[in-house]
Amino acid sequence: MMIRKRAILQTIIIIFGFHYTKVKMELNNLVRAAIFAALAVGMGFSLMLVPNIELITVIVFLSGVTLGTGWGGLVGGTAIFIYSGMNPMGSGLSFPPLFLMQIFSMIITGVVGGIFRPFFFKKKINLLSLVGLSLLGFMLTLIYDVLTLISYPLSAGLGFTGALASLAQGLGFMVLHEVSNAVIFVLAVPRVVKYIK
């Protein structure tokens, strides 16, 4: 009888200990996600006056690399929600289709960071991976720019020609944004990942 009680007690301790560990790990990830979101928002506001050069995208991507796809998407959506919604230069809340596209594209950025997570932890970063990283930064920024630029013409009923006109008008700023983020990804991601490993 005594052995049976001890076995039951040990089983309960193991189950609750495991549950406690899971909760603790989730709390750690929640705190890390909050730090990443705050960092992204803070860096967004600090570079707000510099046109089309921003660090939000790379920070959201790094949150996905660090915490995984779900947390990366959550950080991306939360960070851009706060940054765009409370931006004194013009709140995204004043135009909901644009606001939703910003949130959606940053969720994609965080999720993609989580998808590429194994790549950074298994391989040593070389020249080929730096080229791939710059292309990844370029493409994620392109997705963001295209979705946000076409959100107005499509929601206003201007159709495909209106969306093309909007893209043509914003082409110069788009290219600057994509190229700057490609460079930022190459400079920032390998250095940060080195400390995460």
What does this 3D model show about the protein?
The chain is mainly alpha-helical and 197 residues long. It has a single domain (2-196), classed as Arp2/3 complex 21 kDa subunit ARPC3, CATH 1.10.1760.20. It has eight helices and no strands. The chain has helices at 2-46, 56-67, 69-85, 96-115, 117-122, 127-155, 159-169, 171-196. Helix 2 runs parallel beside helix 8 (171-196) and helix 4 (96-115) packs antiparallel against helix 6 (127-155). The longest helix is centred in the N-terminal third of the chain and has 45 residues, at 2-46. It is globular, with a radius of gyration of 21 Å. The mean pLDDT is 85.
Q: Can you give keywords for this protein?
A:
197 residues, mainly alpha, globular, 8 helices, 0% strand, Arp2/3 complex 21 kDa subunit ARPC3
Structure in a nutshell:
With about 200 residues, the chain is mostly helical. It has helices at about 1-45, 55-65, 70-85, 95-115, 115-120, 125-155, 160-170, 170-195.
Could you give the topology of this structure?
Layout: H1 2-46, H2 56-67, H3 69-85, H4 96-115, H5 117-122, H6 127-155, H7 159-169, H8 171-196
Helix pairs in contact: 1-2, 1-3, 2-3, 2-4, 2-8, 3-4, 4-6, 6-7, 6-8
